[in-house]
Specification:
Blueprint: H1 14-30, H2 44-53, H3 59-72, H4 76-80, H5 84-90, H6 97-115, H7 123-127, H8 134-143, H9 154-163, H10 171-181, H11 187-199, H12 219-228
Helix pairs in contact: 2-3, 2-8, 5-6, 9-11
Length: about 230
């Protein structure tokens, strides 16, 4: 895949650009424009481990687990030298605990061996770590290094499709579609705002389109209105 700085912006019609700008303005108006991470952490390596644990698990559950986990394991070295079966028990409630424990240990061993225990900021270096895909890498790059990044979780993928920003299901393809149409300076904010929107108004089970401030700009909602007519 092309690197972020090689992405060519998509040519948009004036009307579509105005629609996108209006959506972003409303997101800024209704939600905070401050960067916010939902995973509790004090260091880059803690966020890396928390993000690995967050796969197929809620942030709330991860925060409950890491509250004690980061007291027991106080450093990258502690995780690198952890007993696999013991770590599995410590993170059991996050699900997929066997793979997560194995990946966390391997990831921290690589950090010590190749990066002096520091978390790298390069996308390729990050995705070469055990258990780290583009989503995890972009969480780290956005929240720790403040590199413009788009994190495609279930909310971002689902709502971006509703808004007509992408037709893709593959998270990497969704990420690149969004990078082509959204201004770079809004990438991180879009992640935060859409996750908030997906947890509040536009939930997967019961989207509240009648209360949504984006309903008049949402392509799926406008299509549904035309069908009902």
């Amino acid at each position: 895949m092309a690197r972020e700085d090689e992405i060519k912006k998509k040519r948009l019609s004036k009307a579509e650009k105005e629609r996108i700008d209006a959506i972003l303005a409303l997101l800024d108006e209704h939600y905070s424009t401050e960067y916010k991470c939902y995973l509790n952490h004090e260091t880059p390596w803690q966020l890396l481990i928390a993000t690995i644990l967050s796969a197929q698990c809620t942030d709330e559950r991860v925060n409950i687990v890491t509250k004690d986990l980061f007291v027991k394991y106080k450093s990258v070295e502690d995780f690198a030298n952890a007993d696999l079966s013991e770590l599995e028990k410590d993170i059991h409630s996050t699900g997929f605990y066997r793979n997560k424990a194995k990946n966390i240990i391997a990831c921290c061993q690589t950090l010590l061996r190749e990066y002096h225990g520091e978390v790298p900021n390069d996308i390729d270096a990050l995705t070469n770590l055990a258990g780290v895909g583009r989503k995890t890498a972009n969480v780290i790059r956005g929240n720790i290094f403040h590199e413009p990044s788009i994190v495609v979780d279930t909310h971002v993928k689902r709502i971006s499709k509703k808004l007509g920003f992408t037709k893709e299901d593959d998270p990497v393809k969704v990420e690149y579609d969004l990078m082509k149409i959204l201004p770079r300076e809004h990438w991180i904010l879009y992640n935060i705002q859409i996750i908030t929107h997906g947890r509040g108004l536009c939930t997967a089970r019961s989207p509240q389109c009648d209360r949504c401030f984006l309903s008049h700009l949402c392509k799926e909602n406008m299509k549904n209105i035309r069908v009902r007519k």
